[in-house]
Amino acid sequence: MTAMPAIILGLESSCDDSAVALVTGDRRVIAQAVVGQNSAHQPFGGVVPEIAARAHVEILPALIEQVLADANIMMNDVDAVAATAGPGLIGGVMVALLAGKGLALSAGKPFLAVNHLEGHALSPRLVDPNLDFPYLLLLVSGGHCQILEVRGVGNYRRLATTIDDAAGEAFDKAAKLLGLPYPGGPAIEELAKEGKADAVPLPRPLVGSGEPHFSFAGLKSAVQRAVASGDFAHEDIAASFQQAIVDCLFDRTRLALEKSDAPSLVVAGGVAANQAIRNALAELAKSRSRRFTVPPAWLCTDNAAMIAWAGAERFGTGERDALNVPARARWPLDDGAEKVRGAGVKA
Ligand code: KG4
Ligand code: ZN
Known about the structure:
Elements: E1 7-12, E2 17-24, E3 29-36, H1 38-41, H2 49-71, E4 80-86, H3 90-107, E5 111-115, H4 116-127, E6 135-140, E7 145-152, E8 155-160, H5 167-177, H6 184-192, H7 217-229, H8 234-258, E9 264-268, H9 275-287, E10 291-293, H10 297-300, H11 305-316
Parallel strand pairs: 1-4, 4-5, 6-9, 9-10
Antiparallel strand pairs: 1-2, 2-3, 6-7, 7-8
Helix pairs in contact: 2-3, 4-11, 5-6, 5-7, 5-8, 6-8, 7-8, 8-9
The structure holds 5'-O-[(R)-(carboxyoxy)(hydroxy)phosphoryl]adenosine and zinc ion.
5'-O-[(R)-(carboxyoxy)(hydroxy)phosphoryl]adenosine (KG4) binds next to helix 5 and helix 6.
């Protein structure tokens, strides 16, 4: 008789999405739900930490109840509880972390404190059973823009990072300049469909430089000037901006591929929901004879299935965390990575 695959309950609240999921060790998403808070933050053009934390307190418990009910599963049937313990907005992180600890404690189940970035990093393996370690990961989200070699669960080597803004942050800032709602990525992608990608001359910071790092601050300033000039249609600015990001990600990842023997290229994080970026990197992987995996858009933006899955991977290797594990605002995947000149400290 084969053992039943483990059932992991995953909880996430590190930014502005409250999320709960039930995922099995054999890659089945039994049930999942995400509740965003876009309307609460939209008037401010970005996430307000205090508002986010309070909203998680209101949303998360009912969401846990709902997901368990949808799946017709009781806490007793769950094998372990996984919750994001960072990095992120600390007030929000504490909500899912403490809820997870409480559930594990009351149901007498093992607890796993998951690194949100590891959730993104391992998410492609939830949908691609043939994706083996090592693989090269372009991790592009609202707070991070990194290229990592994923060598195994918990084993990461950072090849590149951003020296200023993250890619998602660049989308959000450009959207604000264009008067588009938060989050900026989906809004810019939509508007870009009506514009010409070569209409506005914009820079490609660091493209061609010898290390595969990223920089987007200069691009944002150029968008600011383009908007202020009044010379360009907003859809053309959106399309040209998106193309500039695509070109930067493509060039930097191309260089990183030269520095890694990993047979697969993977893209994850909220920005990986962008179709132009997915297409460009698929083409890059093909031209370099690498396998390519990108999770579906719902698994790219913040969700709890990726947290449950990272929990399942770690549960499978016998890992467990103590109930006194702390919440962490900063938690790099590669602790040993060198500081890069100009790199700001971002959660
Ligand atoms: O991974 P994520 O949901 O949250 C973080 O961990 O940061 O990423 C959110 C970021 C936001 O900056 C958002 O604008 C961006 O991902 N994003 C996109 C798209 N969808 C979300 N950027 C470009 N195109 C998209 N379709
Ligand atoms: Zn994220």
